[in-house]
Design brief:
alpha+beta; Immunoglobulin-like; 6-stranded mixed beta sheet; 11 helices
């Protein structure tokens, strides 16, 4: 449409905005070039466009104009009644006939109005018998062009109704040999690669489409005039992509730009650029998130972008083609998508994460199973290995002794019964317990001092009453033991017969040792002599004891 026509239409809309609703502006009188004529064959599908549709969006966007209504009239008076699925129906601003019959011939008026605005325009339709002209149109008002791109208006009209419509081309009423290689089919156009004077003539596209289960035909014609012969100069050339591979992550939005040199053909300035996906036009491809956008055409180059709003896995490996055509030749660039390769940094981060996870898991596992691991190691690596430290005893047992021999305490029972039963009887340790193992008539102080020096561990048994109560006293034995523990750094095992809450009555040396290494709390039943040697308590005691000399099977049975 000429630029001056757009300006004039806008002016008419603004003037018509303030016209009385009953005094419609007849654009056919003021602008007769807007009126159109349509020719069709009996039984063909027809689509009449209301030319006012190009102005309706502007006029109805004014604040005073809302809710515009479109009405069609036949021969100025009869209102066209349209219903869904009927032979004549409305599609937006268009009137469709499925099919048209000779009785439909006449002048159709499309009228757009609301409470403050009204405009109308006439469209002429002539329906002729189907066999009169067959596959070409003799009418004088067919489209006239002088470019190598021949449009198929019928395909453009019905593409929204049937995207799978079929197009057959005819030149001067004869089938066009598309396979000769000089033609490129577009979704709704025919492109001639090498335009010569012999290409002049009448081109008709015959469209077969389906609507509501039935097949219809429609057609449109174009008269091609050749102004000058073509002269070979430079063919088009793809700048990017020539044969490229692009990394794209799933879900990402990418913009692929195709840039090409358009070449030069004397007498022709037409150039065509478009994208194909898997040898299919964007309009026909079943992926709804593809969009083709022309960016620029300047300095003898043209650039068109293919926008993928969200990459999906099924696009990997598919061939994307950028096609550029001038009147001389065609050039094609290829592009493929592939998943992004993990970077070296990503590999490094993953490796560090795995290493950190394994290290933390190993530390946590060892912390949780440390005692069992150490005991298993001893059972495997210290079998019957004699000690070379010159010590005679594995542990010296210190416990609060009752002054009243007729009333033994819990400590007496644990130290003299339970402890030897497990450590000596089942684990193979050798203990020294004063009051049980000292030679008769020997000096107590010398025996205690020498025996402690000949022991590898000191076992202190702690009771809730500490060392000072009515039945127990802190003897010289404890003093010597604590001295060796603090001065010689002899390893000490502190066993609480019950969970102790108050250590106020205990010596500072005991408090120091407890704070330094902690205690092992007895949770068993003192009345039960046959204790489980592989219980958690005894595992902790054995963990703090030196390795024993039992054979492998006996040691492993205790783990």
């Amino acid at each position: 449409m000429p630029p001056h026509l757009n300006t004039f239409i806008v002016a008419l809309i603004i003037i018509g905005t303030y016209a009385n609703a009953e005094n419609c502006i007849d654009f056919g009188v003021k602008t007769p070039w807007l009126q159109s004529r349509h020719f069709a064959y009996d039984g063909y599908a027809v689509l009449l466009k209301c030319p006012l549709g190009i102005t309706e969006n502007l006029s109805c966007s004014l604040p005073v104009h809302r809710s515009c209504n479109l009405t069609w009239f036949l021969n100025g008076s009869t209102q066209i009644t349209t219903e869904e699925h009927s032979r004549i129906s409305m599609q937006g601003y268009s009137l469709t006939f499925f099919p048209a019959v000779p009785a439909d011939s006449g002048t159709y008026t499309c009228e757009i109005r609301n409470s403050t605005y009204c405009s109308r325009l006439n469209v002429s339709l002539t329906v002729s018998p189907a066999l009169e002209y067959k596959t070409c149109s003799p009418f004088s008002d067919v489209s006239v062009i002088d470019t190598p791109e021949i449009p198929c208006q019928a395909a453009k009209d019905f593409l929204t109704i049937d995207r799978q419509l079929q197009i057959s081309w005819y030149k001067d009423c004869k089938p066009l040999q598309i396979s000769e290689g000089n033609y490129v089919l577009q979704p709704h156009a025919l492109f001639i690669l090498r335009l010569t004077r012999e290409d002049a003539g009448n081109y008709t596209c015959l469209v077969a489409l389906r609507n509501e289960g039935r097949t219809y035909n429609s057609s449109s014609s174009t008269q091609l005039y050749i102004i000058a012969d073509t002269q070979e100069n430079k063919p088009p050339q793809i700048i990017y992509p020539v044969n490229a591979t692009l990394e794209a992550a799933v879900g990402s939005k990418i913009n692929i730009s195709c840039k090409a040199f358009i070449g030069y053909v004397r007498g022709s300035s037409e150039v065509l650029q478009y994208w194909l996906v898997d040898n299919t036009f964007i309009e026909y491809y079943n992926f709804s998130q593809l969009e083709e956008v022309k960016i620029r055409e300047e300095n003898n180059t043209i650039e068109t972008a293919l926008i993928i709003s969200s990459v999906t896995p099924n696009l990997y490996g598919i061939e994307f083609q950028c096609v550029v055509i001038n009147a001389l030749a065609k050039a094609i660039g290829f592009l493929y998508l592939k998943p992004p390769e993990p970077s070296l940094l990503a590999h490094l981060l993953v490796g560090l994460a795995i290493f950190f996870f394994c290290a933390v898991s190993l530390v946590l596992t060892y912390s949780y199973f440390k005692i069992d691991i150490v005991l298993c190691y001893r059972a495997s690596c210290h079998v019957n290995k004699p000690s070379t430290d010159g010590k005679l005893y594995d542990a010296y047992v210190l416990y609060p002794k009752a002054e009243n021999k007729s009333a033994p305490t819990k400590a007496d029972f644990f130290a003299l019964e339970i402890l030897p039963h497990i450590l000596e009887g089942k684990c193979g340790y050798k203990l020294f317990i004063f009051g049980r193992d000292e030679p008769a008539g020997s000096a107590a102080v010398e025996i205690v001092e020498s025996t402690i020096r000949q022991s590898r561990r000191l076992i202190f048994i702690l009771t809730p009453d500490g060392f000072m109560d009515e039945q127990a006293t802190m003897t010289f034995e404890h003093h010597i033991g604590l001295y060796n523990a603090l001065v010689t750094e002899m390893k000490v095992i502190l066993i609480e017969l019950e969970k102790l809450k108050d250590f106020a009555t205990f010596p500072e040396s005991i408090k120091h040792l407890r704070k330094k290494q902690g205690t092992i709390t007895w949770t068993g039943d003192l009345a039960m002599k046959s204790q489980m040697s592989n219980s958690c308590f005894w595992k902790k005691v054995r963990y703090n004891m030196p390795p024993t000399t039992l054979n492998t099977s006996e040691l492993l049975s205790l783990v």
